[in-house]
TrEMBL record:
Cofactor: FAD
UniProt-listed InterPro entries: FAD-bd, FAD/NAD-bd_sf, RIFMO-like
UniProt cross-references to Gene3D superfamilies, sorted A to Z: 3.30.70.2450, 3.40.30.120, FAD/NAD(P)-binding domain
Pfam families (UniProt xref): FAD_binding_3
A molecular function GO annotation: monooxygenase activity
Organism the protein comes from: Actinomycetospora termitidis
Keywords per UniProt: FAD, Flavoprotein, Monooxygenase, Oxidoreductase
FAD-binding domain sequence ranges: 4-340
UniProt cross-references to PANTHER family, sorted A to Z: BINDING MONOOXYGENASE, PUTATIVE (JCVI)-RELATED (PTHR43004:SF19), TRK SYSTEM POTASSIUM UPTAKE PROTEIN (PTHR43004)
Protein name: FAD-dependent monooxygenase
Length: 481
């Protein structure tokens, strides 16, 4: 039997991020993926600012993943909605004030390559057929697609990142409550002769249809269309008249579809498991939550699930209290619920049928997004930069917020390429003996203890960081200081 610290099921963006993070920290990691080769389809198409921040210090062959993706995709500074309303990502305080339209296949490739480069064992063409866990670990049985013998893997923990139809979730007997909310949505990669003017994502609709366009570059676009009058099962072929004509009516003009390179039909659900942790098995990405594709949140939420979970698994494997893993659910489940809500609200807004309701929607959204405060709240939520984790009683107001933009004597926190905690000392304070990696803050503000995922764990003007670090990592030398 092969033994590992962690087995990750699923080699998509969520699973590969978790595997790469753990392998880079020196953990023995295996990835089990049922597809023999990377999936040729590419449903996700947008990388949001917070995800770009996270991928900026994850490298493949010494080059940041974000840097590579920027060379492959198209930055979009705004999302154009109905009636002139727009979500302005270019007003956010981030190094990447834009979404990035890039096929998911590129993200898949880079993150899997990173996991392999870090030392993870990737088993493609293997499907999980059995799972048993005990007090010390989890045993997985996998069956190869080529008909070979069943293989057994044992790990101290398992990360289930195997998608909305998660086999691991089913083997655990975990319910996936929710419902289907929109059917017969058509995705396609198209070429346009007369694309919408201006930069950004474009969304439009009538009472009967909606259309969405995301620019890949040149004349290539990802389209999403839906028609109330054409509701077919997922496996029904997609006709040309479900793409070009629907886009024209939804957007108010013909965008000139000259070619369709790829097409697919799907339905969207709103579902979320009640608990992300089940003993030594932790659910992440679409295995834990699925929602409307509006807003491009799915892949981004999964990658951020993995970024939250990876360092916590490493800490527990290194001696931290097992209860640290419970904070993965505590922090990420509310975020998943919020994503379900906001993407669902956008989907319901674009598919509204009564004329009075659509008129109210137009007025309210236009006024709200025209204000800086309204745009900042909505754009920050979709971008991920405005999301924060809950802090405890008595914690500084900065605890749980991203520290990416905190200025240091050299650069910012987001520029660092490090896998551990970082103590950011208040300006003018001397180095702290026994601290983890540390740097001096530039400008006013308290000292900060920054977690490996870039969020503030502690803020203050004393040595409270010691107890916080010990609580997260079990580092006794620092705790005894």
């Amino acid at each position: 039997m092969d033994e590992f610290d962690v087995v990750v099921v699923g080699a998509g963006p969520t699973g590969s991020t978790a595997a790469g993070d753990l392998a880079r920290r020196g953990r023995r990691v295996a990835v089990v993926e049922r597809w023999p080769s990377r999936h040729p389809g590419s449903r996700a198409f947008a990388v949001m600012p917070r995800t770009l921040e996270m991928l900026a210090h994850r490298t493949v062959e010494g080059r940041p993943v974000t840097e590579t993706l920027l060379g492959l995709g198209t930055p979009v500074p705004r999302v154009r909605l109905w009636h002139g309303a727009a979500i302005r990502l270019d007003r956010l305080d981030t190094a990447y004030p834009h979404g990035l339209v890039v096929p998911q296949t590129h993200v898949d490739r880079l993150l899997e390559d990173r996991a392999r480069e870090a030392g993870a064992t990737v088993l493609r063409g293997h499907e999980v057929v059995g799972l048993e866990q005990d007090d010390t670990g989890v045993e997985l049985r996998t069956a190869p697609h080529d008909g070979g013998p069943v293989r057994s893997l044992r790990a101290r923990y398992v990360v289930a990142a195997d998608g909305s139809r998660s086999t691991v979730r089913e083997l655990l007997g975990v319910e996936f409550p929710g419902r289907s909310v929109l059917s017969s949505v058509v995705l396609a990669d198209v070429r346009l002769a007369a694309p919408p003017a201006g930069e950004g994502l474009t969304l439009g609709g009538t009472r009967e249809e909606f259309g969405f366009l995301a620019p890949y570059g040149d004349d290539r676009y990802r389209s999403m269309t839906w028609s109330r009058s054409r509701q077919l099962p997922d496996d029904a072929p997609v006709d040309d008249d479900e793409i070009g004509p629907v886009l024209a009516r939804a957007l108010g003009r013909d965008v000139g579809v000259t070619a369709v390179d790829w097409r697919s039909r799907f339905h969207c659900d709103e579902r979320q498991v009640a608990r992300y942790r089940h003993g030594r098995v932790l659910l992440a990405g679409d295995a834990a939550h699925v929602h409307s594709p509006m807003g491009g949140q799915g892949m981004n939420t999964g990658i951020q699930d993995a970024a939250n979970l990876g360092w916590k698994l490493d800490a527990v494997l290194g001696g931290a209290d097992d209860a640290v893993l419970d904070t993965y659910h505590d922090e990420r489940h509310p975020i998943g619920r919020r994503v379900l809500l906001q993407s669902g609200l956008m989907m319901r807004a674009i598919t509204l049928h009564p004329r009075p309701a659509r008129a109210v929607r137009d007025v309210v959204s236009t006024r709200l997004l025209a204000s800086r405060a309204g745009n900042a709240a909505i754009a920050g939520s979709f971008a991920g930069t405005g999301l924060r984790y809950r802090s405890g009683p008595g914690d500084h107001r900065l605890v749980g917020t991203p520290a990416t933009r905190v200025p240091l004597a050299e650069g910012t926190v987001g520029d660092r390429d490090d896998v551990g905690f970082l103590l950011v000392r208040a300006a003018g304070t001397p180095p702290e003996p026994g601290a983890p990696a540390q740097a001096e803050r530039r400008g006013p503000g308290p000292s900060l203890l920054v977690r490996p995922d870039g969020y503030v764990a502690w803020a203050g003007h004393d040595d409270g960081w010691c107890a916080t670090l010990a609580r997260w990592t079990g580092t006794r030398a620092v705790a005894a200081r």
